[in-house]
Amino acid sequence: MDIPAFTPNEINLRGQNMFRSGKYSEAAMLFQEASRAFLENGNDLMAAEAANNSSVAFLKNGDPVEALAAALGTELVFATAGDKYRQALALGNQAAAHEALGNYKEAIVGYQRSSELLKKDEHPETRAYVLQSLSALQMRMGNQVDAIVSMTAALENKPEISLKERVLKKLLRLPFRMLGSKD
Hints:
Elements: H1 8-20, H2 24-40, H3 44-60, H4 64-71, H5 74-81, H6 84-101, H7 104-119, H8 124-140, H9 144-157, H10 163-180
Helix pairs in contact: 1-2, 2-3, 3-4, 3-5, 3-6, 4-6, 5-6, 6-7, 7-8, 8-9, 9-10
């Protein structure tokens, strides 16, 4: 009995459903399969998108090595297509994988490149998320001033901030106000 083949879009959709269900390992494999199928059909953009989805699923599943391998090079596909938003997401995915691997310098560069691309884009919430990740990593590495600058920029990019974030924003301004005071 012949089993009907699934289209790349159907495989990708199955991966998305597995991801939403928290079955990250299965999702990662389906996204990889979708990426290969998209490539066979000549759809490089969707192949790169599926590869990035597999990167996120691998990372959620605790496999940063596979996450990094899946995302590497996809930013170039998006750059060639002029899709700066997905290029920035790919760089952010790579940065997150580098961070999970302990490659902090590479992670910082990736987050910064992602943030710069998103600065010119119409997705301030995404840029805020990237900057928050960058800030947390900078803080972990002992770069408090850089972390404050990154977190301040993150909060400036959020169209709506919670009460907790408003308090944090005021607290982040204190060191700079103290430097400028003439007591």
